[in-house]
Amino acid sequence: MRKFNRVLVKLSGEFLMGKKEFGIDMDSLKEYASQIKELADEGVELGIVIGGGNIFRGLEGTGKGFDRVKGDQMGMLATVINGMALQSNLENTGVGSRLYTAVRMEPYADYYVKERAIESLNEGYVNIFTGGTGNPYFTTDSAAALRALEINADVLLKGTRVDGVFSKDPEKHPDARKYESITFNEAIEKQLKVMDMTAFALCRDNNLPIVVFNVNKPDQLKKAIYEDHIGTLVH
């Protein structure tokens, strides 16, 4: 028995780099596509939001002299490239998918409309949402929270490099304690960095649970949908 039927998966663009310093590692891309195919074949309704940090990160561009708005727009375009790459790999494995952008970009992708996206989910297509929210000053975390709410997802699954939410950075502090489950208010009180605060507030105010899991471990995405005690549940 799976716990969730319709999910929104947030993947960071950095995960597509694999061991490269920049761009897309094809082995990593194929691995993620393989995991998504397995879930789609089992009837899980999937929406996916991918970041663009493997190609361009808006805030870093701002620090190097780009106007913030232009920098964020360049980051949005980077997410479209990642989305096109994922869609291509999914289709190569026989998985039907729809690629949406938050700003008009035909013929590369369809313009995002909530009703159209829900219809394609009901028809069994994997939805890939790119272009962030379409606005500067918002992260792809915010886009993930927004799209999850719009498509009536049961949960937002946030893939990270670690096994969940910890009391402090586990990559720097070996004594960091992992939380199996934590409330939104507790996460705020403890100043735990689950997502950016705009995205976090959207989930909290609309009672959308978040599962933070290690996307680099085999089968963790599937386990987060089917099993308890995978990663950290924020509710």
Describe the structure.
This protein is an alpha/beta fold and 235 residues long. It has a single domain (6-234), classed as Acetylglutamate kinase-like (Carbamate kinase). Helices cover 38% and strands 19% of the residues. It has helices spanning 26-41, 58-63, 68-92, 114-122, 140-150, 184-189, 197-205, 220-226, and strands spanning 6-11, 45-50, 97-101, 110-111, 126-130, 155-160, 165-166, 178-179, 181-182, 210-214, 232-234. The strands form two sheets. The protein has a nine-stranded mixed beta sheet with strand order 4-3-5-2-1-6-10-11-9, with helices on both faces. The protein has a two-stranded antiparallel ribbon with strand order 7-8. Helix 1 (26-41) packs across helix 3 and helix 5 (140-150) packs parallel to helix 7. It is globular and about 50 Å long.
Shape: globular
CATH homology superfamily name: Acetylglutamate kinase-like
Following the backbone from N to C, one meets helices and strands in this order, namely: EHEHHEEHEHEEEEHHEHE
CATH top level is Alpha Beta
Radius of gyration: 17 Å
Total of domains: 1
Under the CATH scheme, the architecture is 3-Layer(aba) Sandwich
How would you name the oligomeric state of the polypeptide chains in this document?
A: single chain
The end-to-end distance, rounded to whole angstroms, is 21 Å
Helix content: 25-40%
Instruction: Describe the sheet with the most strands.
Output: 9 strands, mixed
Count all strands and give the number: 11
Helix and strand composition category: alpha/beta
CATH topology: the name is Carbamate kinase
**Whole-number average pLDDT?**
91
Total DSSP helices: 8
